[in-house]
Amino acid sequence: MHSPSSSRAIHNYCASPSPFRSSSASLVSSSLCAPPRTLALNYRRKYLSVRGRRSDFSDQRRQTGRPPSPPPEEPTSFSRQPPGALNSKVFVGYSIYKGKAALTVEPRAPEFAPLDSGAYKVSKEGFMLLQFAPAVGNRQYDWSRKQVFSLSIPEIGHLMSLGAKDSCEFFHDPFKGRNEEGKIRKVLKVEPLPDGTGYFFNLSVQNRLLNMDDSIYIPISKPEFTILNSALNFIVPYLLGWHSFANAIKPENSFRLNNARFGADFEWGR
Known about the structure:
- The chain is α+β, with helices and mostly antiparallel strands.
- Helix content is 29%, strand content 27%.
- Strands 1, 2, 5, 6 and 7 form a five-stranded antiparallel β-sheet that branches. Strands 8-9-10-11 form a four-stranded antiparallel β-sheet. A two-stranded antiparallel sheet has the order 3-4.
- Strand 10 and strand 11 (212-221) form a beta hairpin.
- The chain is globular and about 60 Å long.
- The N and C termini lie far apart (116 Å).
């Protein structure tokens, strides 16, 4: 049973709320002043699921024992493909343009042949294709009259070893060993310029089948020859096919390959 003083205290508390009263006090006052009511609150739990690539990696790792392969849109490494086989062709070259002619140097990939064991071997080494085109105007060249010359691996090495005062000459007969031997003669001469500022490339072609005799020459400066020499130095191992051998080296295959070659004739096995 409440006393009159307590009833007046409750009435005053509800009638004049303080502006500085906290939210908890407001709740208390509202609960004391308002008539009793029943509130029904329904809570519904929502679950948020986040699945990352790490989860996919772990799941496939547990199932297969190896990491997942990249998605289809991501290119795979060349080591997973047969040597010499690429998804698409890529054309590259180094071009030099001068007043009398233009020169373009392009690599040509080696060729591979499959063996019965499933392996591959180099059936034909790559080479560098030199294309000379005469000028027909200011910075204009007639590529329909171009003359080509293919540098083999030994010839590339000879060209790369030239000193400032050295020269070299290469002779090609496309029909050598055939009935038409001698009917087409190609001679490429590389000589130092008189002032020592570079080299002089001169390609002479004599074609008796077409009754044609052509000669195209172009000066190559020292900086241009340095770039050409650097490109040749980089591409030679690829022309030999050594990149395919390096890409095929796998740690898990080393033991099997060494055992298969146990009877091979090694120098240190003698």
